Amino acid sequence: MRQVASVLLLPVLLMGVTACQSSEGELEKRTSPAGVDATALNAHGDGATERDGTPKNGTRKHGAAVGWVGDTADLGGRTFGEHLQISLRGFVDPAISTRATVRPHRGKRWVGADVSLANVGGRAYASPLTTARVVDSRGTAYRAVAAGDITTGSPLKPKALSAGEQMQGWLVFEVPDNARIVRLDCTVGASSRSWHL
């Protein structure tokens, strides 16, 4: 009789062990730090923290929230079929106007970012670049200014992009002479991406 009872209880015990292991696996999956989206955490981090955790080897994947000069970011849209790629092709410090009479204010200098936008989706992208700022080592942000042509190229003129269309140009920012610029932040629609400089 005892042997029969043991045989009957064995499957029940095995089911209990399996259930416990499954619950522990579910718990680990929910609480593991590896499950945290590091990209989202770094999207608005300060330059020093991001620099420590970012490999400067040119192998960053599309869509990463923080990149380096030469990297391309993938941005989805608010509706199906919207898909934009934005690339930081280059950075100059200082940026110099092609016209001798056009120059930054006293105590300021210009820096320039060479940006490329490509609509790789299946429909028009209405707002290819909402805002762009450079950020210094103290966390102060500076908006793009109208500086006209600079010695490295023509200014970027954001507009709605048809499917398959792309554009490229320079964004110019006026910053204090003593500011150390460390990052470029770009916002497209509801998405933001950053590049180390």
Specify the structural class. alpha+beta
Averaged pLDDT: 74
Global morphology: globular
The value of Rg in angstroms is 25 Å
Q: How many β-strands, per DSSP?
A: 9
Following the backbone from N to C, one meets helices and strands in this order, namely HHHEEEEEEEEE
Give the biggest sheet: 9 strands, mixed
How far apart are the termini? Answer: 78 Å
Strand order of the largest sheet: 1-9-8-5-6-7-4-3-2
What is the overall number of helices? 3
How much of the polypeptide forms β-strand, as a percent range? Answer: 25-35%
The parts where pLDDT drops under 50 for at least 5 residues are 1-64
Helix content estimate: 10-25%
How would you characterize the overall build of this protein?
The chain is built from 3 helices and 9 strands. It has helices at 2-31, 38-42, 47-52, and strands at 66-68, 72-76, 83-92, 108-119, 131-136, 141-145, 166-176, 181-188, 191-196. Residues 1-64 have low confidence and may be disordered.
Architecture blueprint of SSEs:
Elements lengths: L1 H30 L6 H5 L4 H6 L13 E3 L3 E5 L6 E10 L15 E12 L11 E6 L4 E5 L20 E11 L4 E8 L2 E6 L1
Parallel strand pairs: 1-9
Antiparallel strand pairs: 2-3, 3-4, 4-7, 5-6, 5-8, 6-7, 8-9
